[in-house]
Specification:
single chain, about 55% helix, about 10% strand, about 130 residues, mainly alpha
């Protein structure tokens, strides 16, 4: 798969297009934050944790059991998800339950899944 990217045959900038797009570009800090958010989705364990939390709030013990992982590794990944405002927690006695922060997470996840399945014509439930 050695595809080449097509480029213009000569260097000609379209200033009106460049200025129009430039005026709508978010600040670099916002784009940096967005890139950092998407990095969080780049880890399979975190994706698995988010996926189980779509179904139910769960404690670390439940998630570790379900994913066949150690409490320590689940706790570490939950910390990353919490720092990035993707999960929240609540205490019930001595138990800490984790859940998704809001519906944006489900939307991001669903659209990503839809995108990767689209070319294959597969169904999410298959």
């Amino acid at each position: 798969m050695n595809e080449t990217i097509k480029c213009c045959e000569f260097n000609h900038v379209h200033p009106e297009i460049v200025e129009k797009v430039k005026s709508k570009m978010p600040k670099d800090e916002l784009l940096y934050d967005l890139a950092e958010l998407f990095k969080v989705f780049g880890d399979t364990t975190r994706i698995k944790i988010l996926n189980v939390l779509f179904e139910s709030e769960m404690c670390v013990c439940d998630i570790a059991q379900l994913l066949n992982m150690t409490h320590s590794s689940i706790s570490h990944q939950l910390k990353v998800l919490k720092q990035n405002k993707l999960v929240k927690f609540r205490k019930d006695g001595k138990t800490v339950f984790y859940s998704l922060c809001d519906n944006h997470i489900y939307s991001i996840f669903s659209q990503g899944m839809e995108h990767i399945l689209e070319p294959n014509g597969e169904n999410l439930n298959d």
